[in-house]
Specification:
Order of helices and strands: HEHEHEHEHH
Strand order of the largest sheet: 2-1-3-4
Structural class: alpha/beta
Shape: globular
Number of strands: 4
Distance between the termini: 15 Å
Number of helices: 6
Largest sheet: 4 strands, parallel
Radius of gyration: 16 Å
Helix content: 40-55%
């Protein structure tokens, strides 16, 4: 199942409706289904993603990176302190450069004002911490997925695996 999702809906609380979250779950489930030949699905081969994060985001960054690489994307981790991401003219130039170099930018621990300017000037997909377990859309996704799996008594909940599935579903649904 393939859907198109506007990434901007992910960056606001309650930006996704129940049908969109269910569609993401279906995408995630289709990725988890055994593929032909047992080889990983490299559906994002050729895509370049910037992962802008600070030191405190190491776990979230690692989960995001594993999920994206698992689909064949190349991920460049950029420390937010080294990227010149402060409001002003430099930020506009940095945003434009990121837009030319990357198909998407995942921002973890980045100020909302900076994120808004990146969205405005980067001319690429900009995510707001989709690798975090505190992300509103992930919590909705996790709740729906738990309900769908509740009938399988042998299925233990793996939060990290669920986060990776969510990230992969989001990436496939927003990157074209």
């Amino acid at each position: 199942m393939s859907i198109y999702l506007d990434y901007k809906a992910l960056n606001v609380p309650n930006g996704l409706n129940a049908q969109q979250v269910e569609a993401l779950r279906c995408v995630a489930d289709s990725l988890a289904a055994p593929s032909t030949g047992g080889a990983p699905q490299m559906l994002l081969r050729g895509k370049n993603i910037a992962l802008v994060c600070g030191q405190s985001d190491l776990d979230d960054a690692s989960v995001f990176e594993r999920a994206a690489i698992g689909l064949g994307a190349r991920v460049a981790r950029i420390r937010s302190s080294d990227a010149g991401l402060a409001p002003g003219a430099e930020l506009i130039a940095t945003a434009r450069m990121l837009g030319r170099l990357y198909d998407a930018v995942e921002c973890q621990g980045v100020d909302d004002e900076v994120l808004a300017q990146l969205e405005q000037h980067a001319s690429t997909v900009v995510y707001k911490a989709i690798g975090s377990p505190r992300h509103d859309a992930f919590r909705q996704f996790d709740h729906i997925r738990r309900q769908a799996l509740a009938h399988l008594a042998s299925t233990a909940h793996d939060e990290q695996g669920c986060r990776e599935a969510f990230i992969q579903a989001v990436l496939l649904s927003t990157l074209r």
